[in-house]
Amino acid sequence: MGYIGLPTATMFSCYGHKVIGVDVNEKVVNNINKGKIIIEEPNLEELVEDVVKKGNLIASISPKESDVFIISVPTPIKDDKTSDMSYVISATKSIIKYLKEGNIVVLESTSPVGTTEEVVKPIIEESGLKVGRDIMLGYCPERVIPGKIIYELKNNDRVIGGIDKKSAEEIRKIYKTIVDGNIYLTDCKTAELCKLMENTYRDVNIALSNELLLICDKLNINVWEVIEYSNKHPRVNLHTPGPGVGGHCLAVDPWFIIEKEPELSNIIKSSRLLNDSMPEYVYNKIDKILQKDKSKKITILGITYKANTDDMRESPIIKLIDKLLKNNYNVKVFDPYIKDFQINCQSILEACKDSDLLILGVNHDYFKNLPLDEIKTTMKGNLILDIRNFLDKEEVEKSGFIYKLLGSN
């Protein structure tokens, strides 16, 4: 019942299905059964409260007998950059004793090609039921972005990969009850690779822009101007460079392709390594700005992996903070979306107190109109580093700060 499972369960509940949302975290289960949630997502809590009151959504610590089982668990990346399938395996094993003839099992978790057929199917058949005869099985990945999950679950097109044609068609009937977009049918492996490539496409294109940033840095050219004017071409759409790529999708999914075909995925691997190196690049910029003076205090605004969300998974800002702390810099942060983080302050001014350098880490809307004059009187130094091209340079400098933009100085 996380960032994908809970909204998916809620959507099915909204359209009249009786849904049991399973999670191993008792805090999550107890909150949902009270109509509360512990993640940030617009409109989700109101919907959860409504469907729980109606009795359409019940959270549980264990599965129950059902007609349809949807597996939506994490698939983390291990230290060796291979996929950790332990949650998928555990979740699949947990439903074995509840399966009966005619059930549908759907894997939604982003997974390496072959997972549905080679991992999930054999476990299901430990029940004595035959996939394709007694149990229908398929893969249907989500295509949503935090902050717009409810809208996109309903309106985005979906791809369903079935273990066979009948499975795909029956799974489509289930999803068609909540999806207004088109639903396309294929086999499991094709659907699995589609999901991985959708995120890999974006990762590779961000890497291209980050590589351009590195080149512009060497040539003393403003990367943001190059991107702006290049994108005036009708067939060019350069992505936005920055401190790296985060989230469970872009920072993880390409590795699943590399894991399967390491000899062929050269562009994908190069892009992944480049994006992973960007926090180190930003650290070196900070080191240079502060002349490697470890007595200097640094304030960072925003620590999530993307704007206007509380999601910190694979956040490049967290990796940057870790690097700064390991090198003995004094770091304070403020993020309006985060409550439990060791060095998170209660306000911008508290985080900026006696600071030498203020870094705009994440372009939350909350930071659009910073109280620059108050910040200036609170800080010891007068340096601002914008790593998102988000702040108004003229306004910043008008308040007496020296404005530095990643990719332009």
Structural class: alpha/beta
Domains (count): 2
What can be said about the biggest beta sheet? Answer: 5 strands, mixed
Rounded mean pLDDT is 96
Count of distinct strands: 12
Alpha-carbon distance between the termini? 44 Å
Q: What's the order of the H and E elements?
A: HEHHEEHEHEHEHEHHHHEHEHEHEHE
Short note summarizing the structure:
The protein has 409 residues and is α/β, with parallel strands linked by helices. It contains 15 helices and twelve strands.
Structure description:
The protein has 409 residues and is α/β, with parallel strands linked by helices. The protein has two domains: 5-189, Rossmann fold (3-Layer(aba) Sandwich), CATH 3.40.50; 278-405, NAD(P)-binding Rossmann-like Domain (Rossmann fold). The protein is 41% helix and 13% strand. It has helices at residues 5-14, 26-33, 44-54, 86-95, 115-124, 149-155, 165-175, 188-219, 223-230, 253-260, 266-289, 316-326, 348-352, 372-378, 393-398; strands spanning 19-22, 57-60, 68-71, 104-107, 136-139, 158-162, 183-187, 297-301, 330-334, 357-360, 383-386, 402-405. The strands form three sheets. Strands 3-4-5-6-7 form a five-stranded mixed β-sheet, with helices on both faces. A five-stranded parallel β-sheet has the order 9-8-10-11-12. α14 (372-378) links the parallel β10 and β11. α1 (5-14) packs across α3, α4 packs parallel to α5 (115-124) and α11 (266-289) packs across α12. It is globular.
